[in-house]
Amino acid sequence: MTLQYCLLVLTAPASGHTSLTAARFAAALVARGHTLSRVFFLDNGTSNGLATAITPQDERSPQQAWSALADANGTELVLCVSSAVKRGLLDSAEAQRHGFPAATVHPGFTLGGLGLLVEAMQSADRVVTFGAPA
Amino acid sequence: MKAAAQGGVLVVTRHPQPGRSLARSALDTALATAAFEQPVNLLFLGAGVLQLLPEQDSSGVGVRNLRKVIDSMPLYDMEHCYVDAEAAARAGLTATDLPPGAILVDHKALRALFDNHRHILGF
Amino acid sequence: MLHTLNCSPGHPAVQDCITLLQQEDALLLLGDGVYIALENSQSWQALQASGATLHVLEPDASAAGVKHRLAPCFTLVDDAGFVALSELHAQQMAWY
């Protein structure tokens, strides 16, 4: 049976590898034939979309893991806009609005409101949350 | 305990406020779900009940007063919230300390509350 | 219900999780939670007493060095096994 999933990611790549676990879970559910139309990043989770985060060469980049998922399956990667801008994650519109020269959000991600999480939960058979101790 | 909305989303908030923004995010998520007219309940569990301490003045630390936001929930069609009764007792919270519409839930009834919801969000 | 537990032994989330954990549930330890499954830690006894099925995420157990020191009540699952647990249980609660 094919299930529709929605993932909520609350943890930042810098505080452990739980966001990478979430990205692997996402890839594994798609590999099992399920669908994942949207991943919502909230609170510290929005740091997953930071374009200027540099991952050491011998470690896996969470952004690459997420954007590979988006490229292969069309999964939308949405960063909660209020959590994101608070953490310096700006798309080009927000950067312009606040007078910064460039966007800091990775192009694979978009900014959006909590309504997009509400909408994804409504149509989802499964909602899986990923958080980690501070 | 009054019956929870069948189906819908249960937002479980377990972290106290000043140290972590998660408490605020949990509240925002519950309020947004209600704003989109989807059934939602909020449960203060474990250390999350510390968000309900009534004498909060956050002007000194420069963040928003969470208790004020919690007290405004009925304006957003969230008439009730659920509170872990054992944790509230441990924190010394009495009935008069709790926000309007708060329903105390003992540990035996907690499980039924979880089971009554389609999705659970753990904050 | 599927419970995912991601915190060290002794963290308050462990006790909150035990309060809700029932026989028909599955519990998956991940992240720092894998230390709870260490055979000598005894932290898993209350989890076992619930009657729930107990699992540990394999990559995390390997990374922490606990993979070969697990209490016998735990089963290792890979990412696909984690998804399979979420298929079986309509609700998930993240404890951390």
Description:
- In chain A, helix 2 (62-73) links the parallel strand 2 (35-41) and strand 3 (76-80).
- Chain A has a 5-stranded parallel β-sheet, sandwiched between helices.
- Chain A has helices spanning 18-31, 62-73, 81-86, 92-97, 115-123; strands at residues 4-9, 35-41, 76-80, 110-112, 126-130.
- Chain A is an alpha/beta fold.
- In chain A, 35% of the residues lie in helices and 19% in strands.
- Chain A has a single domain, classed as 3-Layer(aba) Sandwich (Hypothetical Protein Ychn, Chain: A), CATH 3.40.1260.10.
- Chain A contains 5 helices and 5 strands, in the order βαβαβααβαβ.
- Chain B is α/β, with parallel strands linked by helices.
- Chain B has a single domain, classed as DsrEFH-like (Hypothetical Protein Ychn, Chain: A, 3-Layer(aba) Sandwich).
- Chain B has 4 helices and 5 strands, in the order βαβαβαβαβ.
- In chain B, strands 4-3-2-1-5 form a 5-stranded parallel β-sheet.
- In chain B, helix 1 links the parallel strand 1 (9-13) and strand 2.
- Chain B is globular, with a radius of gyration of 13 Å.
- Chain C is an alpha/beta fold and 96 residues long.
- Chain C has one domain: DsrEFH-like (Hypothetical Protein Ychn, Chain: A).
- Chain C is built from 4 helices and 5 strands.
- Chain C has helices at 12-20, 45-49, 58-64, 79-88; strands spanning 2-5, 26-29, 53-57, 74-77, 92-95.
- A 5-stranded parallel β-sheet of chain C has the order 4-3-2-1-5.
- In chain C, strand 3, helix 3 and strand 4 form a beta-alpha-beta unit.
- Chain C is globular and about 30 Å long.
- The two termini of chain C are 16 Å apart.
- The chains are: A alpha/beta (134), B alpha/beta (123), C alpha/beta (96).
- Chains in contact: A-B, A-C, B-C.
- Chain A binds chain C through residues 1, 3, 5, 10-11, 16-18, 21, 24-25, 27-29, 31-32, 34, 125-133, and chain C through 4, 6-8, 11, 13, 30-32, 57, 59-60, 63, 79-80, 82-84, 86-87, 90, 92-94, 96.
Summary keywords:
heterotrimer, A: 134 residues, alpha/beta, Hypothetical Protein Ychn, Chain: A, 5 helices, B: 123 residues
Concise overview:
Chain A is built from five helices and five strands, in the order βαβαβααβαβ. Chain A is of the alpha/beta class and 134 residues long. Chain A has a five-stranded parallel sheet with strand order 4-3-2-1-5, with helices on both faces.
